[in-house]
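Checklist before submission:
- one chain only
- standard amino acids only
- sequence pasted in full

Submission:
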Amino acid sequence: MKDSIHQNDYTYKNIWQIAYPIILGSLAQELITVVDTALVGRLGEVQMGAAAIGGIFYLSVIMLGWGFGLGVQILISRRLGEKNIPAINKILFHSFIILLGIATLIFVTVRFFAPDVFMKIIQSEHVASESIRFINIRIFGIFAAFININFRAFYIGTGNTKIISLTTLVIAVVNTILAYLFIFGKGAIPAMGIKGAALASVVAELSGLLVFILYTSNNSAIRKFKLFSRVPWNFELVKNIGTIAIPIMIQNFLSFSAWFIFFLFVEKMGETPLAISNIIRSIYIVILVPIFGFSAATNTLVSYSIGSKESTIISLIIKRSLTLTFIGISVLVFICLLFPEPIIRIYTNIDSIVIATIPAFYVVLIAAYTISLGIILLQAVSGTGKTHISLVIEIIAVAIYLAGVFVLANQPTMSIEKVWTLEIFYGLVIAILSAIYLKSGKWKESIT
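Returned file contents:
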């Protein structure tokens, strides 16, 4: 495979070759958020706020699968570095079954319990009702999403990331077209409002899964892995996967759950601060797109280098990944500084909200740099296989972050941009703790 990892090749070019398809794929994926937020924003503040809460809630549960997939990715990279090709299919087969089981459990739990929980924890009855309408449909996408995560783990873990760009591009295009049709209605298609946004995303995820299946089935270079061919169930392997993956599952869930709790606190500040925060969230995630690619490349190359007995190169991998990340972030920040108001107006045509959003907009431009530093270093920690350490780091950072949110959001005269400054400190805490651990060298003990 031409785009797979090669030994002794940790150059800027190689990091970029692994990262750029993920960046393009992530950009396409985040366009879903932009489109949904922009279209739903035309329905009103209530719907925009509900889409924010429902969307973050869905992302929180999706992060359970995403975290598990990252653990699988680490193991696949490690086995590739060891040249143990048969082990890769065994890992992927077991993770496929486990992820489907987790998806089923989440689906049943959300369908039965989420509506009651939303009505109790969301102050505005209108926002709660719209959030429930959104999540009741959106949760059907979890099965396709979790299978897609398993495919991503394989392709990123083996350095074959180009298919991820194609898959997420298809998802973005399908979602954009269907979201417009389903939200506002066209011809024989009735206007479904916020439910239409959720349904469009579900269909888009299914289209992405179809692309993964067709590509994997028809790519001769992939056949040597004998993907998803049946293998005997191995409880020892399940334990090994769980040891690496479960801490990352919890870590990712905590990270996005903190954002969900953040939005619950903001919702109590009023519908306007909630609408502003939804706009900021969407812009912020797009700015962070380079991080998704370079952090995945960092994780993959760190794990691969350990499997190849080249762990001394890890500091170089981190430095080069950080350099490329900061360059990518700086380009997007520069564009945002040039056109703040036009960018915000993509999401809303209400002048008062546009003006009120600008201060928080500048805050997240600063936060992008501290989050970049923190995530790259944290993914390096995870890439060493010490995922329980990255979990501890996340717990500490989230605890500090939520304590700050609780204090600030409950101040009667607090402005929303001051609450968003906590993102800056969140990234710094993760960066400092990750750097201390990596510098200590303790990750070299009992490498998995």
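Reviewer check: The chain has one domain: 12-444.
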